[in-house]
Structures are given as C-alpha cells and as structure tokens.
Amino acid sequence: MKKGSFKNRKNEKIVVLVEECPDKRGLVFIMHGLGGRKEQPHIITMARSFYDNGYTTVRFDTTNSIGESDGKLEFATVANYYEDLEDVIQWAKTQKWYQEPFSLVGHSLGGFCVSFYAENHPENVKALAPISGVVSGELFVKAFKEKEGLEKLEQWEKRGYREWESSSTPGLIKKLNWPFITDSLKYNLLTKAEKIKVPVIFITGENDEDIPPEHQKILYDALDTKKEFHIIRGAGHTFMEDTHLAELKTILDNWLKNINNF
Length: 262
Hints:
The chain is built from eight helices and ten strands. It is of the alpha/beta class. It has a single domain, classed as Alpha/Beta hydrolase fold, catalytic domain (Rossmann fold). Strands 1-2-4-3-5-6-9-10 form an eight-stranded mixed sheet, with helices on both faces. Strands 7-8 form a two-stranded antiparallel ribbon. The longest helix has 18 residues. The two termini are 29 Å apart.
C-alpha cells in the first residue's frame, strides 16, 4: 500500500492511500463521510472487499475533515467534499494504474458525492455503492429534525455552528458551521437519477437515524438499473461492530461477483 499526496484546485493538500491489485480487474475510489477519514473500520472493510475481488483501491481524506488532508471540519460543505472527489479522480488519471470505467463507493456524505459524480459523468462509472448515503439536503435536514428536534436545528442556525461527540472516535468533539446546511440544500440526487444506469448497491443500518433507510429507499426506487438494497440488522449509521463489518463485507463480496458480467 502506498501513501501519497497532491494539491487540489484550492492548493490544499489531499492525502491518498493506494493499494494496487495484481489482478487489475478494476479500479475503485472509496470516500468517507462528513467528518470521517480513510482509516475508519467501515472504509477499510469496503476497500478490502474490492481488493479481494481484484480491484486497485484508492482511499483518501477530503479536506475539511478529521484526517491527514488540509482544512478544518467546521468549514466543510457538500461542494468542497464533491470537488475533492473530482480532484482525486483527476489526479488518478496521471497514475499508471488508472483505468476506466471505475467503481465508486462512499459512506454517508461520501455516498452522496459518488452518486452525484455518477450522475454527472455516467460514461466513467462501472458500478456504484452509496453506503448509508445522503440523498438530498432537504432529506438530511428532515432527518436531523426528527433525530435531534427542531430546537437543535434552530440553535445551530442561531449560533452559527454545531458541536457534537464523534460516534466512531469517542472523546473527539466535532464542530460544523451552519453554511454546511445552506449549501446542502442546493443538492438533490433525485433530480438526475435517470442518468445512473450502472449496477448500484445500497447498504444501510436498520437503526440509522442520520440517513434513515426509508430515505435511501426513495433514491433506490427512482433508479432504473440493476440494483440491490440491503439492511444490516442492529446497525446504526456508521458500522462499527465486528458482526456488522463482517456482514458489510459479505454483502459487497457477493455483489461484486454478481456484477462481473453486467
């Protein structure tokens, strides 16, 4: 596995991890969610599944997250995460292992970004896996209000920022500015869902309150392509239990075997 870095369109450092597979069956880009990083257990599990099935894997830390890339989480927006995905793919085009079409996998906000890329560049994408993925800014806000209450959303707007403890890194206090919400409301995957014609797999946690399964099912129902929808029982938004991670890998392994001839 090789670690490297490059500068994005804003001259900010992005750190990437590339594991070249000798089988060279395919290439996959794997993207973490809001305030995530490339070493999270569920991100590693996704990468391992693709590598085991013959794919070169590319994991990266977006800017404005908690990983090794530049920026601070508080300044994160949907736009900056999506632009970083575009810039990673553009950088990859200069590497000897690059190939098209490639697969895209993302968790949460990363799931939105990879799906949005597939809508905008359908000719480049081989397969798509939005895991616990955001569907639209409107639905994200709706889920937040249902989980935290309208008062918490109003406090976020009034204060200009929100703070909370990370679920995957206990003790880490995350901070996110209100412009994340105003920016997110510009985006809706349902608008161009018909552009996605490649195999798609949705995987979600039964107890996901951040991006509820029923919200992801809306996008699933809007797609006219080879598709699967899986719910991992007992899991929340971020898969952390060993049993949930094992099920995530098994689901991905089976899917990859099924789509080889699509």
